[in-house]
Design goal:
By secondary structure, the chain is of the alpha/beta class. The strands form 3 sheets. The protein has a 9-stranded mixed β-sheet with strand order 11-10-9-8-12-6-13-16-15, sandwiched between helices. A 5-stranded mixed β-sheet has the order 2-1-3-4-5. The protein has a two-stranded antiparallel ribbon with strand order 7-14. Helix 3 runs parallel beside helix 4.
């Protein structure tokens, strides 16, 4: 199962909207087949492992990181392929949270005379590997992660000169890996105007779908000659309001930018409508990389599921340096947004990241 999980990791960023799955076939104490899923091939991990094993699959045990599917999607059911190949035992790390499967795969295997086991000691690791997919299957919404680089006193920007980086190259490389595993990324117009950013996946690794870049821009101030607009290739959307000029919308659309009109309170865009839109389009994850105002707007709207805060051993101080979350904030300590499941990730030599989930009522 350890090897199956390692195989599954090779599919990260390459399987969405499907989960990353790894499978290993063992016969007479020896590995006879291995496989992992990528969306491009269309074949599930179980089928790849069966093809790798050939005739040696008959009488073998399969170790797989997720319950085999039992329904017809892009491919026939994996349960049928396992039965036809003569596999006698299936050990899975976890049940598939997809309502179309969710125990049905196990039942189909048992009905076919295949012995089924679940390895509970691997469930947490398997679930974490596919946390966006699991979250989406259980809630119907993409997993929303708020990422920020901070000084030790919680500042993300200085009041005057913001050239250079808060965190190290090593920390930024870690961020790129998380970006690679995300389906979509969001920032605000303030960040685009200040940094003329691209928001691309710079890992160079294969993806199952382009990273959808989204800019929140209530009045469409985004420059038509900005780097992000000039690089649009069906992978850029601007979220605006009905108050934005129709001619500006058309100018962006001509340049290959998708314009989303989602009105919210106070003449601003509504991030909750964006999450609903992404869910309908089968995007499994959303990463927010923005400024103080957008960060607070997302937190206050209740769309953030988890945070990933990268801390550098620095202090900016002052009352004008921007905090990670600005806006009106909460007026009382008892109303603070709480977090749970906190994990600390050390980034040698002197940085660290805090990962935590928003505590839901």
């Amino acid at each position: 199962m350890d090897e199956a999980l390692e195989l599954a990791r090779r599919g990260l960023g390459r399987t969405s909207p499907n989960p990353a799955v790894g499978a290993v076939l063992v016969r007479d104490g020896s590995v006879v087949g291995r496989g992992f899923h990528t969306y491009a091939t269309g074949k599930h991990a179980e089928v790849v492992a069966l093809e790798d094993a050939g005739g040696q699959a008959r009488g073998a045990d399969m170790y797989v990181t997720l319950e085999p599917c039992s329904h017809v999607g892009r491919t026939p059911p994996c349960t049928d392929a396992l039965s036809e190949a003569g596999v006698t035992r299936v050990v899975a790390a976890m049940e598939d949270p997809n309502p179309l499967v969710s125990g049905r795969g196990f039942r189909r295997l048992v009905e076919a005379g295949i012995h089924v086991e679940v390895a509970p000691e691997y469930e947490e690791e398997a679930s974490r590997l596919n946390e966006a997919f699991v979250h989406c299957m259980r809630t119907g919404r993409p997993l929303v992660t708020l990422k920020a680089a901070l000084t030790l006193d919680g500042k993300i920007a200085a009041p005057e000169d913001n050239t250079g980086w808060i965190t190290s190259e090593r920390a930024r490389a870690h961020v790129q890996q998380i970006r690679h595993e995300s389906d979509t990324i969001v920032t605000g117009i303030g960040t685009v105007l200040a940094d003329d950013c691209l928001l691309t996946d710079r890992t160079g690794l294969e993806r199952s779908r382009p990273l959808l870049r989204i800019v929140l821009d209530s009045t469409l101030r985004i420059p038509l000659d900005s780097k992000i607009v000039r690089s649009a290739a069906g992978d850029l959307a601007v979220m605006t309001t009905s108050a934005s000029a129709a001619e500006r919308r058309r100018a962006l659309e001509v340049r290959g930018v998708k314009v989303l009109v989602f009105d919210g309170p106070g003449g601003r865009t509504d991030p909750r409508k964006l999450v609903d839109y992404l869910a309908a389009e089968q995007y499994r994850s959303l990463m927010i990389e923005s400024g103080s105002k957008v960060n607070w707007a997302a937190l206050e709207a209740g769309i953030v599921d988890k945070i990933y805060f990268y801390y550098a051993p620095k202090i900016l101080g002052g009352m004008q340096s921007l905090p990670v979350a600005g806006g009106s904030g909460r007026r009382r300590r008892v109303d603070a947004i709480e977090f749970e499941g906190v994990k600390l990730h050390l980034i040698p030599p002197d940085e660290f990241a805090v990962e935590a989930w928003v505590k839901r009522p």
